[in-house]
Amino acid sequence: MTSLALLTALAGVTTVSTLYLVGQSREAEAQTPVPVTLATPLAATVLTAEELGDPVMAERREAALRPRQTLIELVEDLGANRSDAALSLKALYEADLVDPRRVPAGLKVNAYFRGDGESAQLASLSMSNEAGKQIMSRRMPDGSFRPLLLRAHTEPVARRITATIDTSIYETALSKGARDQQVVDFARVFAFDLDFQRDIHPGDEFEMVYEEIVDERGNHVRTGDVIYAAINGKALDKAYYRFTPGDDGMTDFFDTNGDAATKFLMKTPINGARLSSNFGYRRHPISGYNKLHKGTDFAAPSGTPIYAAGHGTIERANRYGGYGNYVRIQHKNGYETAYAHMLRFGPGIRSGRRVRQGDIIGYVGSTGASTGPHLHYEVLINGKQVNAMTLKLPTGRKLSESPEILAEFEQVRAGIDALRLGGQMMASGDSDTAIEPGDTPPAP
Ligand SMILES: [Zn+2]
Predict the structure, then answer these.
(1) Which domain holds residue 180?
(2) Spatial CA neighbour of 84 closest among 56, 39, 64, 114
(3) Are 365 and 221 in a shared domain?
């Protein structure tokens, strides 16, 4: 029985999966995987060699790779003879299904044996080094091993969470089924509008819709993007939609009117800091003279990361007199930002390097003329320091300035709203809901 026949014989199934047979050098010229579409749901998470193999298949043995152990040692420990262990793995290596130099400790390997005890013979090996994928090496009647790659049929579903914040958005979202990455993404959307330490209050409401990739049995394979983020609270009432404009391809979040969440510069290029000294005249803590303080000070523990306030090019990153370790970034339209008293610079930060908004450029310290760990932050326009806190900064992109792009956005926005409303109709209470994309309930 050929492998293909074996696999095709796997019936009793409902949806379509794609399966890749990897040609073996002895019998196939093609080394590239050949996609075979079957009318079968091969949920990778449940597929085992037993399901694939002949019914008299015997014993399954399982082990996880230990640190510094090689795969061949593991397969031998499971009871395969040296030659079978080597041949079964060589088939996987030659087909590029497993890179022997990059096998993570902890990788689970299943081995299937025919026969008993000492005389048991390795029939197949299987492992999964990536969600949604199952790799096998299967003994053929001639004693050779054939590599197989089985891919679960996956699809994105939208998940919606609406909740009232009791403790934090993080805890509330996790308790509703979101994962760390979605909460981080959600917070990033609001980074320009909100200080999460100060501006979130118990009783505020939030909503997020995110994609999740699942196999046909609904098992989680991986998380996808947040596509909608909204807060309805004391400090802010705002909703953002994920959208990639067709002209510049820069994915961002846009509010109902098509204004980007991302602004030109961040007001507070540091998390969790306390504003300790404003721009303006004050008695200098070291010299004692009354002089203009040309920046804003944020007190924060030594080592707290400092972010690039906007996209730009590093003009200098060096020791600079009383400023201590100092970074200055040049942005568009005559704007610059400067960061002083750093403990040290971020990885790879040096003059001439381009940075993106949010990149770590250094860490809070107390170098130069400084009385304690803080970030001294300056915004300059055409070389002159201005008050960053009261400055009306240029906003991010406004889609209303590009009518065609705005029309694209409005379609995407309507699609996301339809998902949300669909979810509401299906929802029991306000808990999280899986929404099948493609359902198009009446537009709001
Ligand atoms: Zn200062």
Answers:
(1) 155-263+399-435
(2) 114
(3) no
Q: How far apart are the CA of 165 and the centre of ligand 1, in A?
A: 35
Tokens (6 digits) for 163: 């909740």
Specify if 203 maps to a domain: yes
Ligand 1 centre distance from Cα of residue 235 (Å)? 28
Q: Does residue 210 form part of some domain? A: yes
Give 341 Cα–ligand 1 centroid separation in angstroms: 9
pLDDT tens digits, 41-59: 333 333 344 444 444 456 8
Q: How far is the CA of 317 from the centre of ligand 1 (A)?
A: 17
* Residue 18 CB coordination number (10 Å): 15
Residues 241 and 293 in one domain: no
Q: How confident is the model at residue 431 (pLDDT cuts 50, 70, 90)?
A: very low
Instruction: Judge contact between 295 and 376, C-beta under 8 A.
Output: yes
Residue 19 neighbours by CB distance under 10 Å: 25
Domain CATH code at residue 279: 2.70.70.10
Q: How far is the centre of ligand 1, averaged over its atoms, from the C-alpha of 286 (Å)? A: 11
380 residue type, one letter: L
